[in-house]
TrEMBL record:
Positions of region (Disordered): 38-66
Catalytic activity field: L-glutamate + NH4(+) + ATP = L-glutamine + ADP + phosphate + H(+)
Lineage of origin: Eukaryota, Viridiplantae, Streptophyta, Embryophyta, Tracheophyta
Provenance organism: Linum trigynum
Family to which the UniProt record says this protein belongs: Belongs to the glutamine synthetase family.
InterPro entries named among the record's database cross-references: Gln_synt_N, Gln_synt_N_sf, Gln_synth/guanido_kin_cat_dom, Gln_synth_cat_dom, Gln_synth_gly_rich_site, Gln_synth_N_conserv_site, Glutamine_Synthetase
Pfam family, one: Gln-synt_C
Protein name as catalogued: Glutamine synthetase
GO CC term (a single one): cytoplasm
Subunit structure: Homooctamer.
């Protein structure tokens, strides 16, 4: 008799052309991912070949019960690392039956910014450093003593060993699953607080950065589901003398990457300073608990920038300073930020804003 594992890993292509498409969307909280699957008659290669779908928005806090239908528009396709074969993951955004984006659909507004001719001409690149914390089901960091605390920070960042690195099997599984899916994941590392990790997505161009981060988060949630572990994107999961979790966003435009780009970078940073409060308001919930001026952060109320300064709001790397061109890092976004909002807002401020 076939085992459950045998059945889960059945290769559908042995018997049928049909595939399974897992439709993914962002739920009502703005951070909760939802998904459901449907059968398609044959493999597809682009979102335009996929049908729209719908779901009960009253069950996700996205629509009232008396008018609950929300429409899913397929926007990006990735290979499914769980079902494998020709099966796919589909990142969707959400609309009313009349075709209007619902309030929690942040992708639609971002797509408008990224389709602006001035933004398209600058080919904005993003590299997003997504930090997260692995927790037990009792919501205590993985590897920490029950109802207690580990030794102080210091040995855990990029650390190895059973007393320093907790959950590496989950982290490495996620890394490989993202590569399989076609996400441009560029690396992983253990973070400063034990039980905290980071993966990086990019360089990705424009709206694709948001699609890739959301699907990478989805894959991570699915893997932790299998492992019986909880993943937290809270920007300060443990109060006290412990690092928080961010989503540092590295950014460049075509002009910044060309000779003389350092002057374009400095002009962009000046624009970011002018809109500091607007960016902070959009950079993640609970970020005030993280941006304290301690633990490698700048104070939330003051904009600062510097070269190789991880205590600044915005950091320019040594190589960029030396080469006179390159990129900068916005260190303000929290780990629970919406990548559609953050990436498009940075492009809007640095490219479209006139001071």
């Amino acid at each position: 008799m076939a085992s459950l594992n045998d059945l889960v890993n059945l290769n559908l292509s042995d018997t049928t052309e049909k595939i399974i498409a897992e439709y993914i969307w962002v739920g009502g909280s703005g951070m909760d991912l939802r998904s459901k699957a449907r059968t398609l008659p044959k493999p597809v290669t682009k979102p335009s070949e996929l049908p729209k779908w719908n779901y009960d928005g009253s069950s996700t806090n996205q629509a009232p019960g008396d008018d609950s239908e929300v429409i899913l528009y397929p926007q990006a396709i990735f290979k499914d690392p769980f079902r494998k074969g020709n099966n796919i993951l589909v990142m969707c955004d959400t609309y009313t039956p009349a075709g209007e984006p619902i309030p929690t659909n942040k992708r639609a507004a971002a797509a408008k910014i990224f389709s602006h001719p001035d933004v398209e001409a600058e080919v904005p690149w993003y590299g997003i450093e997504q930090e997260y914390t692995l927790l037990t089901r009792s919501k205590w960091p993985l590897g920490w003593p029950k109802d207690g605390y580990p030794g102080p920070q210091g040995p855990y960042y990029c650390g190895i060993g059973a007393d320093k690195a907790f959950g590496r099997d989950i982290v490495d599984s996620h890394y490989k699953a993202c590569l399989y899916a076609g996400i441009n994941i560029s690396g992983i590392n253990g973070e400063v607080m034990p039980g905290q990790w980071e993966f990086q997505v990019g360089p990705s161009v424009g709206i694709s950065a948001g699609d890739e981060v959301w699907v990478a988060r989805y894959i991570l949630e699915r893997i932790t589901e299998v492992a019986g572990v909880v993943v937290s994107f809270d920007p300060k999961p443990i109060p006290g003398d412990w690092n928080g979790a961010g989503a540092h966003t590295n950014y460049s435009t075509k002009s910044m990457r060309e000779d003389g780009g350092i002057d374009v970078i400095k002009a962009a940073i000046k624009k970011l300073e002018a809109r500091h409060s607007e960016h902070i308001a959009a950079y993640g919930e609970g970020n005030e608990r993280r941006l304290t001026g301690h633990h490698e952060t700048a104070n939330i109320n003051k904009f600062t920038w510097g070269v190789a300064n991880r205590g600044a709001s915005v950091r320019i790397g040594r190589d960029t300073e030396k080469d006179g061109k390159g990129y900068f890092e916005d260190r303000r976004p929290a780990s629970n930020m919406d990548p559609y909002v953050v990436t498009s807002m940075i492009a809007e401020t640095t490219i479209l804003l006139d001071l």
